[in-house]
Request: fold
Amino acid sequence: MKKRILAALLILTMCLGLSACGSSTSGSEDSKADKKEEDTSKEKEKEAPKEYGVGDTWTVDGKFSFTFTSAALTDDRNQFEESTPAQVVLLTYDYENIGFEGFMDLYFSDNEFTVIDEGGEVASTYPLSISNYPQETPVGAKCTGVQAAYGLKTESSSITITVTQTDSELKEEKAVFTLALQ
Reply:
């Protein structure tokens, strides 16, 4: 444990030393301002991901594609569940492994979703009987008709879902879906 702490302190010290040596005073102030504006606009583009809807496919080139095929309200309730959501939504989705390499084969479960109702409340998974579960999907294969259920705290006509996936290089891909409830 002490060796890990010592190694971390050494790395931190080296990084700080290198960053102090990295400043440059060449170039005009105008070009620096232009560069800063360009960097800021690129950051904004990255921060504002495209929004997708039901039936829209999010594709990450060379890695995977993902589509919500349905977001349906259901009257089904689990008699043993203590929570009493305002609505229960059953999500159905498909994904395909184009070339994704991670710690395991491509896998999209409810752990990769953050579901928010129209009241701004984060929804919880709901224990509903579903017919198709996510599967680890190797390169060249797809998983279709996967289902996940969520209990919404606020009655809503649409929900927003942020979907994330992290590869073996710890690069996180993220997309936002706004789904009208059927």
